[in-house]
Amino acid sequence: xxxxxxxxxxxLGWPTAMHFAAAGDTVWVADxxxxxxxxxxxxxxxxxxxxxxxxxxxxxxxxGGGQPINMKIGDLTxxxxxYNLLREIQPDAIVHYAEQPSAPYSMQNRSAAVMTQHxxxxxxxxxxxxxxxxxxxxxxxxxxxxxxxxxxxxxxxEGWLEVEHNGRKDRVLYPKKPGSFYHLSKVHDSHNIEFAxxxxxxxxTDLNQGVVYGIDTDQTQLADELRTSFHYDHVFGTVLNRFxxxxxxxxxxxxxxxxxxxxxxxxxxxxxxCVDIAARNPADRGDFRIFNQFTEQFSVSQLxxxxxxxxxxxxxxxxxxxxxxxxxxxxxxxxxxxxxALTDLGLQPNLLTEEVVDAMLATVRGQAGRVDPRIIAxxxxxAGGEVSKADT
Length: 392
Ligand SMILES: NC(=O)c1ccc[n+]([C@@H]2O[C@H](COP(=O)([O-])OP(=O)(O)OC[C@H]3O[C@@H](n4cnc5c(N)ncnc54)[C@H](O)[C@@H]3O)[C@@H](O)[C@H]2O)c1
Fold this sequence. Notes:
Shape: globular
CATH class: Alpha Beta
Number of helices: 12
Number of domains: 1
Low-confidence stretches: none
Bound molecules: nicotinamide-adenine-dinucleotide
Structural class: alpha/beta
Largest sheet: 7 strands, parallel
Distance between the termini: 50 Å
Radius of gyration: 20 Å
CATH topology: Rossmann fold
CATH superfamily: NAD(P)-binding Rossmann-like Domain
Number of strands: 14
């Protein structure tokens, strides 16, 4: 398979590229390094130092042992770049990770919200049109998020809902109630892709992914230079990463609000497995296929308890502190999301066992000297609509 990974310098994109190269597929990655710029703007660094993409590709091609990885540098919001990319590569499958991925980032101010939606929605539209022009039979595998659904008081189906209204029945896209301008950008993407499938006969899989945790995959472990990014800061850090770093740094685990916020989670190894399953079982022409990509549900408080217990096993004394919630979200709610499509296609989940938490804690402990405690406390509030400095 010829596969193009968009966002190939990112947390998920880089391990995905190595995964397919190790499996013998022909792999291209593309990225514009926007994430590295956004990190610099907020004075944020990942916990583990990440070499340049050029260096990582070179390292993989020397020691990886699979197919070489090919690289293109460019911005998806530049349609000429995207058209040229697809005309040259003619991929069978495209994995689209290349978006601004942070809810807090998008909630900072007007310009961050506008940039997020422009980057994500226009980049995705350019991709759809370029596919239609140069590789209309290719399979688009698009990373969406479980956050598109929000926390409705009914079961969350896999993308579609059968409804009966005034005696008539239809199948409609599941109603979305997202919690940030970032999550909204993914909803807009989903609607645009569904339209392209219905009108152009595009084939697409929308992976509504839960929160990913984990650092290691089979390929990242081959060499230090092949590692992927691990964020624990208040902008890009996800909750389990942040708790592990706080535990190691001797800081209390900061639970936002009551801690009953429940979400779907999955191991980074399962992200690779799910994308692999989607790529090797493509959607039919005209099919907008939606998979809920997570393996377990946890509340924030449950995760905090797991890290406290891991800390105890490692001889660390870990406290928990409930902070005033910087977000506007339900802190106690019903949550029951379906996730059978990927397991029906063969996914065998790597669950969040004590061993997995202990291994992550040990890795973080090995980097304790690099922790910057100033970038952990939340600084972005959902309510208030702060005005961007650039706008005043
Ligand atoms: N990490 C998670 O827990 C998680 C959960 C659900 C969904 N997702 C989605 O998965 C995707 C990948 O997430 P990630 O954590 O690897 O994020 P990431 O920020 O590490 O990777 C995204 C990459 O895309 C690049 N990019 C962004 N805009 C671009 C553009 N216009 N042109 C070219 N490249 C561009 C960035 O430079 C970055 O390297 C994102 O779409 C994210 O929304 C991630």
